[in-house]
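Consider the following assembly input.
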Amino acid sequence: MVKIVIIGSGCAGWTAALYTARANLSPLVLTGGQPGGLLTTTSIVENFPGFPEGVDGYELMTRMQKQAERFGARASFGTVEAADFSRRPFTLTVDGEKVEAQAVIIATGASHKHLGVPGEDLLETKGVTYCATCDGALPVYRNQPLVVVGGGDSACEQALYLTRFGSVIHLMHRRDALRASKIMAERTLSNPKIKPVWDSVVTEVLDVKQDKVTGVKLKNLKTGAESVLNCAGVFIAVGHGPNTEIFKGQIEMDANGYIIPRKGTMTNVPGVFVAGDCADHVYRQAITAAGAGCAAAIDAERFLAAQNQ
Ligand code: NAP
């Protein structure tokens, strides 16, 4: 039996681990399939306080893990397949094994959204990708035209990163103004290698027959005109959805699957707390996730203390 299990190892998870470890609760962190979470797929994080020159996303997460482990947090590489929150201790099924816990912090984060157009799934890893920092340097993209889809900070970040490798980066957005923060939008639009394609959506990724990306079919939403843009890679950055599927029916969530905390960070189930992007569709920043992880840890610690556990 574990006092507290933290599901997820992003900013929220490791911060919750740091605080619960320092409260002598020996937290067990179940890392999920992507240890370190989404931040490990970004390049330089420029807006995490304390790093005036920026910090590599992977390095930041590794440091957070080390800091929590220094105080007794334990990491276990594993994905939670099922959760039973109907009675305490709660039971989690992790890669077939049962883990019992007096309290749980859900910090499962969010995953990349897909476009849902023909060719996208079949050509994933064959030119369709959701992570420029993971894949952008591959030889297949060098000196080739590339397409980035989206208008937020992630799309801008991916487009800027890809200017190191591609010959030209077509940044395709469904509106005529970026959603990204001003500083990112300005930096992106002033880069001579980035060509915006406004008011347009990808309708198909080509070419499944050749088993690799050769281009995209696109449609201008204002004029209705359809065309083909040749490219060697499509980098999709159209936002994220919460990783909460396994908690459906037990934990209260909104129509989009974001968990709704009831009191502080506690969910509708006493003893189950939530932190980070799986409950936040508004701020979605590394620092707000870390802050929420801290709050969830404090709430969980007080809950356990009140139960004399
Ligand atoms: P986001 O801000 O939600 O932006 C998603 C973009 O994709 C929007 O421009 C949206 O268009 C577009 N989109 C959504 N569905 C689409 C579809 N089906 N087809 C075409 N386009 C679609 O997501 P994000 O860029 O991943 O950022 C998530 C959060 O992380 C944000 O809070 C952001 O500030 C933060 N972040 C920060 C940094 C940084 O500061 N360096 C870096 C990355 C992310 P509309 O604009 O029309 O809605």
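Residues 286-306 form the longest helix (21 residues). Ask yourself how this observation constrains the way the partners meet.
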